[in-house]
Amino acid sequence: MSNLKYKKTGSELIKTPVFIIALIITFITAGYFIAKGGILTAILVFALPFVLLFLFEILKNPSIGIITLVVLSFIIPGLVRYITTEVGIGLSLDAIILLTYISVFLKGPQYSERWKWIKSDLFILSLIWLLYNILELANPLAMSKVVWFYAIRPVSLYLILVVPLIFMLGNTRKFMMLVLYTWAGFSILATIKAAVQLHIGLDPWELKWLADGAAETHMLFGKLRVFSYFSDAGQFGAAQAHIAVVGLILASVIKNPKGRLLFLIAGLGGIYGMMISGTRGAIAIPFIGAFTYVLLRKDIKMIIVVCVLTLGAYLFLNHTYIGNSNYTIYRMRTAFDKNDASFQVRLHNQQLFKDYLKDKPFGGGVGSVGHWRSRFTPGTFLANLPSDSWYVQIWAEQGIIGLILYLIMLLYILSKSFFIILFKLKHKELRIIMIALVAGLFGVFVTSYSNNTIGQIPTSILSYFSIVFLFDSEKLEFEYFALDKKNTNEIKES
Question: C-alpha angle with apex 452: 63 to 329, nearest 5 degrees?
């Protein structure tokens, strides 16, 4: 017993000189960074070792990197209200993508069989679209080459970088369900955050964001358009409508009771979030999603029910004044009003775009209209003209040729997804999951006419995952049937 070394524990450790010195240094360091950059800066400094450890884990397991993309796509849009840096926070997505690719290459032979995606039609389409965007560098109307670097990322770069990673790392049932559960979980948190904004109030950083200019579009008639932790209310409303479609369909087919409940809450919360966001264009997503669902199910009775409900909703919103005292209902009703002032402004702006672009088939250059225009090309005609639409933005930046090329890609994605579901998939559960994904995706494509929905995170990242799962669903089906066989054998044995 006398040879055993005594170890200090609990309160005794606090009394040691080393601990006291370390504590003093910690407080001094924290005080310094708080004085220089505020409490958030201090938090970031102390979080750095944990961040580095996490990045090391990605190098060991690239699958962590790809799921991190989903998480960051939800977190980053809201962080810009709290953290101001010279380098855009969005570049953290680029860092994670790069690190994940490094991890994949380090694995070498382990992933050699997974590089077959390079021959896929989706990759070829993405490559063609990227090459066209690269050629836009030579557009003589482009006012800045620097803006191209920033603007190209959501337009085409993330598509061609993220899709291969999903093909390689996300082509299993387990991973797909992890993505869907993560999607539902963060959507529920977004709904809760929005409810807090509406019923309790905004925090100081959100109030400052409104005061700096966002109030123009987020305070209408004295009513707040909630935005949760998204970039704006429009993106929040569209994202909530998206999960409403996907979540409610998944809740009808997922066998796991906890999973079914999670998707049900996410779906119902999505409807609520869409309504309180005041985003009128988001209404298209549940309508399009419902029609897509019943058509692909090929259920005549369900088609009739959905048609009746849709007609009833249309007549209620467009041909009655019932509920106009409720701001949410009134706001949704204005989506069908052709004389609405906001709608008329959009039509006027589109006419201005049309007049400007009539002799410019390649547009005004990537980044000439989007988010970065005010920083790099202020004062130009396109910079001062809001597009209010993802497709109008593509048209203005890359011309009618670029718009046609982009729409062809989207139509191909939808048509192939429809074909796979209608004629290829036989497994009932997987088929319904794919219907949910394409129903949500179709709705997002349509609503992007009235907003930049598909060009912003998290919707863009979630759409890429949906597309790859759809295109790779025939491979997933083998796993589903194998699992069914295993479960059947286990039941027989028991």
Answer: 110
